[in-house]
Amino acid sequence: MTSISANTDTPARLLSLDFFRGATVAAMILVNNPGDWGNIYAPLEHAEWNGCTPTDLIFPFFLFIVGVSIAYAMGSKKTDPATHNKTILKALKRAFILFGLGLFLSLFPKVFTDPIGAFQHVRIPGVLQRIAVVFFISSIIFLKNSEKNIFRILIALLAVYWALMTFVPVPGVGYANLEKETNLGAWIDRGILTEAHLWKSAKTWDPEGIFSTIPAIATGLFGILVGVYLKRKDIDAASKIAWLFTTGCAAVVLGLLWDLQFPINKSLWTSSFVLYTGGLATVILALSYWIIDVHQYNRFTKPFVVYGVNAITVFFLSGLIPRILGMIHVKNSAGTEVTLQAWLYSGFSSYFSPINASLAWAIAFILFWLIILWAMYNKKIIIKV
Q1: Res 186 pLDDT > 90
Q2: 87, 136 in Cβ contact below 8 A?
Q3: What pLDDT score was predicted for residue 10?
Q4: Are residues 206 and 155 in the same domain?
Q5: Can you say whether the dihedral through the CA atoms of 98, 99, 105, 108 is positive or negative?
Q6: FRET partner for 73 with CA separation of 20 to 30 A, picked from 5, 47, 303, 326?
Q7: Are the CB atoms for 215 and 274 separated by under 8 Å?
Q8: What is the pLDDT of residue 9?
Q9: Which residues, listed in sequence order, are joined to residue 51 by a DSSP beta bridge?
Q10: What's residue 35's pLDDT?
């Protein structure tokens, strides 16, 4: 974390964007923190491979929001080339911090008990790491290119990724394919990172791997284009909403059509997945903008906004706390030593069925952070990364 802001001299924020960001982060915490990984409602799980569940929408929505935020935060700097290098250096610094926070989550707590072993087997890709890369590269593309060029780059990324994944024979396999361990992306990730630094649940591939970050950048660019359009002052709000709804629905349809040949798949971050999720995100943001910013129906937004203004902070800490709870041991009523998290969770499992106890724990975790974030918001404390 680089600084804490408690002033009100910053430009007015787009409330619907904070709302959308907050809802997305809250959903991310919900699906990442079940009480029992063996008991989860189906919509709160990722698709086994091809396909898309509500949970699969969360990460691309966040990267889309990163893109929209770039358009708003860097829009004034884009028109002044003299500031570009300084802005890029700031973006690089933020990217390094985000990447470092992600690595720290991968290393913690083993880095304090077995530092050599921790670094030898640390997972290098990850959610925060991908956010860092997408943010930095998208920022450069935004500053250095016109909207038309950004659109061309987006299409080129999707087309090139599709061509490489579906037509290039995978070394050692002999043919192009989209299976978990034998696709081109998995082969590239293993070659660069080795199995020691990939997702531990698979070891042979990684859902946030290097190669699939290429189309993830396209998701960020999708958000940038929407943000640029939303900022335009020469178009009335009704026309903006109409065009964004039309564009979003068209992208969803194109994604579903492309799915017939290049399946929608979050782990591969396929080009069809980018269009499908980007389209849905556009529709949701347009609807939020129309309700919250245009018609000023915003009484219901504060719980989500408090999450949205400190999104990275709460995501990082919500990943850290369960690890800390797992390090602390206490004795339960039977005199058996258990982790503090298991002891706390037993209070839920005593009153609910296994699957509902798991969900109740996740909801309680969200409410716990809501109380903290609400207090921070009231004191105008925003931790900037």
Answers
A1: yes
A2: no
A3: 37
A4: yes
A5: negative
A6: 303
A7: yes
A8: 35
A9: 265
A10: 93
